[in-house]
């Protein structure tokens, strides 16, 4: 976990392990986003549009999603992207599709890494830490994202 003095628009904390809590919020909440994705729908879309996966996900995200639960893992990553956009107060198209990247995951707590326009918006809003929690079943992948920091010019809009 990063000390609160370090900027976290480029990395974040979140998630919980069995018997421990990580990513406690220490500062003002600047934005919250929640998103749910239907993994089966994403699977059908990716099957119809094979180049879409490379547009939506960074090479590292695609690499980490390998294995039998590939679509579920990609679904949680896409939900995290959408939830982050909501926490920033923007929608699809305001930032690049790969400007929000979910890293780690699996047996480690997921973290967010923001690039490009998303990182600029987060810095301008005063976001210092990101908290992300993801989960999935066969029917739904969900992500909750919280932006923490010191408002630069007020809350994230």
Task: Describe the protein.
The protein is of the alpha+beta class and 157 residues long. The chain has one domain: Ribosomal Protein L22, Chain A (Alpha-Beta Complex). The chain contains five helices and seven strands; from the N terminus they run E-E-E-H-H-H-H-E-E-H-E-E. The chain has helices at 39-48, 52-56, 59-64, 70-88, 116-125, and strands at residues 16-17, 20-21, 29-37, 100-104, 110-114, 127-136, 141-149. The strands form three sheets. It has a three-stranded antiparallel β-sheet with strand order 3-7-6. Strands 1-2 form a two-stranded antiparallel sheet. Strand 1 and strand 2 form a beta hairpin. The radius of gyration is 15 Å and the shape is globular. The model is unreliable at 1-21 (pLDDT under 50).
Which terms would index this structure?
5 helices; 7 strands; Ribosomal Protein L22, Chain A; alpha+beta; globular; 157 residues; single chain; 32% helix
Q: What name does CATH use for the topology?
A: Ribosomal Protein L22, Chain A
Strand content: 25-35%
Shape call: globular
Order of helices and strands: EEEHHHHEEHEE
The overall number of domains is: 1
Helix content: 25-40%
Q: Which value, in Å, is the CA radius of gyration?
A: 15 Å
Structural class: alpha+beta
Name of the level-1 CATH class: Alpha Beta
Write the CATH architecture name: Alpha-Beta Complex
Q: Taking strands numbered 1, 2, ... along the chain, how are they ordered across the largest sheet?
A: 3-7-6
Sheet with the most strands, sense and barrel status: 3 strands, antiparallel
CATH superfamily: 4'-phosphopantetheinyl transferase domain
End-to-end distance = 27 Å
DSSP summary, beta strand count = 7
Which consecutive residue ranges, at least 5 long each, have pLDDT under 50? 1-21
Mean of pLDDT? 83
Count of alpha/pi helices: 5
């Amino acid at each position: 976990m990063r000390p609160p003095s370090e900027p976290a628009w480029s990395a974040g904390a979140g998630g919980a392990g069995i018997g421990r809590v990580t990513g406690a919020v220490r500062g003002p909440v600047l934005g919250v986003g929640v998103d749910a994705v239907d993994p089966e729908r994403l699977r059908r879309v990716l099957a119809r549009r094979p180049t879409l996966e490379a547009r939506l996900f960074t090479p590292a995200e695609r690499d980490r999603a390998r294995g039998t639960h590939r679509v579920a893992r990609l679904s949680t990553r896409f939900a995290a992207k959408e939830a982050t956009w909501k926490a920033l107060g923007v929608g699809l198209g305001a930032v690049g599709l790969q400007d929000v990247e979910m890293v780690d995951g699996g047996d480690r707590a997921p973290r967010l890494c923001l690039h490009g326009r998303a990182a600029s918006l987060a810095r301008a809003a005063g976001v210092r830490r990101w908290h992300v929690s993801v989960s999935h079943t066969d029917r739904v992948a969900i992500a909750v994202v919280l932006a923490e920091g010191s408002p630069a010019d007020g809350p994230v809009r």
